[in-house]
Design a protein that fits this description.
The structure is a homodimer of 306-residue chains. Chain A has 306 residues and is of the alpha/beta class. Chain A has helices spanning 15-26, 60-73, 134-137, 153-162, 182-189, 284-302, and strands at 3-11, 31-34, 77-79, 84-88, 93-96, 100-108, 112-114, 130-131, 145-149, 168-172, 194-197, 200-206, 213-218, 224-228, 231-234, 238-240, 270-272. The relative contact order of chain A is 0.18.
Chain lengths: 306, 306
């Protein structure tokens, strides 16, 4: 297979990767973006984005479509449905099923993903009532009762979104208070369709062919109960998408890639940006900033300045 | 004078300050933004912004107007024409001519400014060929001849960046050698599109409606010449807008405020965000990211989490 040569290869087409593509393309670097599925990253599924500065109330898909069109207008090549099958960060080569690529620099923007509960029934019933995305699957639960697992911002925001469809939304949290922002909490406690089950853990998701019942355990009383629901939405934390780089780069204790303030990872010519990078806050703004800085570094590297 | 109390006071209403206001307001903090002039910061003057992700070709004023409306929609109070006359960062009190304010946290987003040449035509032609940012405006000069004023690292790096677009880049420096680092110089001297004019000062920037010509003077021979260019990029140094905090906070050697990755400055409850902060890249994206992180920190502080 012939190897196609680019100045920079960007792995992952969420907000950080697309921003890197905008900046690299605009600076005249030949730029390839490899995306395993479709462009967008996690924000693609958000039905309402109201806190991205400079864009008054939009949705994730619209925001991403604009970023894609900006990146393309500056000459970046974006390949969807192109999962990386092999990568050599030292040698700067990347393979997909269709082709081999090489570059002077690689920007990793593969993002992160939701953690699984790891209880019986979870994997078996994914897509049959078990979901990690209220925006995708909420409308399937019109007039039904569902549960949300978790107590952070995402859990509560998505629970509130689900009240648009479900007749009742149980929020099941293993602690006795929420981690979500105060503003979010106030909104949640005022919502009559939400019901909170505190100090509660899910032991099993049961049902024949589709979700029918949760087995719950109260961690203070050890009491076990059953809860009949048609859907369960799981929001209990996130994992970085770093499997393909395992062991090759320095990471923090949770597996996120460590960089300096120029987004340089522990191998020269390799940069990390966005949700996959070790950082305290993960928002669209922090992703686009990371993507900008990684791109500026790649440009400086191409001119022998870094 | 009575003291008005807020949860957070943000000093400066550019992209970073306004983003902090959006995030603080949305999180339910009472938020005051004090702006010495009008909202916008440096980006306000940009006539075309095409690399802010998610917004397809806009201008600085439009982008800022949207951010202002977002911040107001979440309850932030923004006071323009309200220069801070006195500030006590330890005590978290801020005075303007009109009122006294106090808060639990202060976010400093006062930005920086280019040192001006101070020659006729400079102010009049800003945004019409006079620029202080090659990364922002370089692509507008494809196939044209431009000049860069200065001899430091920034001047030379930006001049090299401009060679990607311009047909010729004159580097005009008042001394007979560069201040830039040696390896930067080597790259520069090897670049055939760069032409160096030594011992040369700009006396005037001329043009009707847009930059057309520079009047130059050789400081050794006193000879005066004209140079036809379409753009002039001025890099004779930047200054952080930190005068009002002099000595109160740790800064880097150039006077920019040092923070950790949560944007915490060296006094508890004080955060810095955007161009005033010590950081390697300064773009709208990096400013909105800083503003986001500073706000998230202020919110966490208000909940006793930081």
């Amino acid at each position: 297979m012939e190897t196609e040569k680019y100045d920079v290869i960007i792995i992952g087409a969420g907000p950080s990767g697309l921003t890197s593509a905008i900046y690299c393309g605009r600076a005249g670097l030949s730029t390839l973006v490899l995306e395993k599925g479709f462009c967008g990253g996690q924000i693609y599924l958000s039905s309402l984005v109201e806190n991205y500065p400079g864009v008054k109330s939009t949705d994730g898909a619209t925001l991403i479509a604009t970023m894609v069109s900006q990146a393309k207008s500056f000459g970046a090549q974006i390949l969807e449905n192109s999962p990386v099958t092999e990568v050599d960060l030292e040698g700067k080569t990347v393979k997909t099923e269709k082709a081999d690529y090489s570059a002077d620099s690689i920007i990793i923007s593969t993002g992160n993903r939701w953690r699984k509960l790891g209880v019986p029934g979870e994997s078996e019933l994914v897509g049959r009532g078990v979901s990690y995305c209220a925006t995708c699957d909420g409308p399937f639960f019109k007039g039904k009762e569902v549960a949300v697992i978790g107590g952070g911002d995402s859990a509560i925001e998505e629970a509130m979104y689900l009240t648009k469809f479900a007749s009742r939304v149980y929020v099941i949290h293993r602690r006795d208070k929420l981690r979500a922002e105060k503003y979010v909490q106030e909104q949640a406690f005022a919502n009559e369709k939400l019901e909170f089950l505190w100090d509660t853990q899910v032991k099993e998701i049961a049902g024949s062919g589709k979700v029918e019942k949760l087995s719950l355990e109260n961690s203070k009383t050890n009491e076990t109960t059953g809860l009949e629901v048609s859907g369960v939405f799981i929001y209990i934390g996130m994992l970085p998408n770093t499997e393909m780089f395992k062991g090759a780069l320095e990471t923090d204790e949770r597996g996120y890639i460590k960089t300096n303030e120029r987004m340089q990872a522990s191998i020269k010519g390799v940069y990390a940006a966005g949700d996959v990078r070790s950082s305290p806050v993960k928002q669209i703004t922090t992703a686009t900033s990371d993507g900008t800085v990684a791109a500026v570094s790649a440009v400086q590297q191409s001119q022998g300045l870094l």
